[in-house]
Description:
By secondary structure, the chain is of the alpha+beta class. It has one domain (about 25-145).
Amino acid sequence: MKNLAFLLLGLMIAFSCTSQKETQILKVPYTEAKRYFVKNTYKSSEVSVKKITSQQEFDEIFGMATTMGKDGKPTSIDFSKDYVIALIGVETNKSTDFLIKNLVREKNSIILSYTIKEEGTENSYSILPTKILIVSKQYDGNIISNKL
């Protein structure tokens, strides 16, 4: 009888440890890329979230927005070590920004939670708002976006 109780207790402990590992949520570190713009050949009628894993794929969507000064160069991206999560908005004439609330890994998925901040005043020009996140390949997974 004692052996059966110990066996059941051991199995409960083993299963409880296993289920905790499966539901573990890990915060994913990232760097925001600066000084890039969405090329005007890119069209979308809704906010899109793209996982980009190569320089060629990145160059099809983005161009460099280099400026003068020491901080004028675009952020470098090493696609051999990193990949990019790009948030691209719809064309607008209002100042718009994506605010990243959370980037976490759960099982085999990377979950991106964000909000959109839009100022009410209209500009004389239009933009495609974007946010580019550089993420290490060690945090690879399917991207799931969650607009808050």
